[in-house]
Amino acid sequence: MVTLKQIDEFIAAEPIAMVGVSRNPKKFGFTAFRELKEKGMNILPVNPHAELIHGVKTYPNLKSLPDSVKGLIIMTQKSQTAGLVRDAKEKGIKQIWIQQMSESKDAFKELEGSGINYISGQCILMHYKPHSIHKFHGTLKKFFRSFPK
Asked: Which of 12, 31, 100, 118 is the most buried (most CB within 10 A)?
């Protein structure tokens, strides 16, 4: 079970890279990136098919990220997650957030015993300066006692 301490540790580990940022403004990967950026997160997009997304320089892969990156949000297909975890480990990233629907058993095996703080089963938008529907969703989770403690 993920704890609030783990979530707070992740959020404090900026800059954070996000893999799965879409170029399409109608996709969740674009919307989530834009919302986190507008809320003030120091976040870097990773997308091998774009140079800029929402006016921000985009990196083609994790290896090309600055060494100062401390955290990673993964919003990709499950089949890509374990490889991204391996790349993050090689890069020395110690904070990983695997967004819902990106989780895989192979990724969790990669994380076992690694010493990496990782979050799964949670939505980053519900925990980073939530507002509107995300704040409401958090309130519901608290009511039903499924919010991290």
From this structure: 118
Report the C-alpha gap between 57 and 45 in whole angstroms. 7
- What pLDDT is attached to residue 1? 80
Phi, psi of 53 (to 5 degrees): -135, 125
Measure the CA angle with vertex 41, ends 39 and 44; round to 5°.
125
Residues pairing with 71 in the sheet? 16, 95
d(Cα 65, Cα 80) in Å, to the nearest integer?
Answer: 18
The reported pTM is 0.91
> Which residues lie below 8 Å from residue 22, measured CB to CB, with a gap of 6+?
28, 29, 30, 33, 47, 53
Are 18 and 73 in contact by the 8 Å Cβ rule? The answer is: yes
**Contact indicator for 62, 87 with CB cutoff of 8 Å:** yes
Angle at 34 between CA 28 and CA 36, to 5 degrees: 100
Query: Could you report the per-residue pLDDT of 127-137, keeping only the tens digit for each?
Result: 898 677 666 45
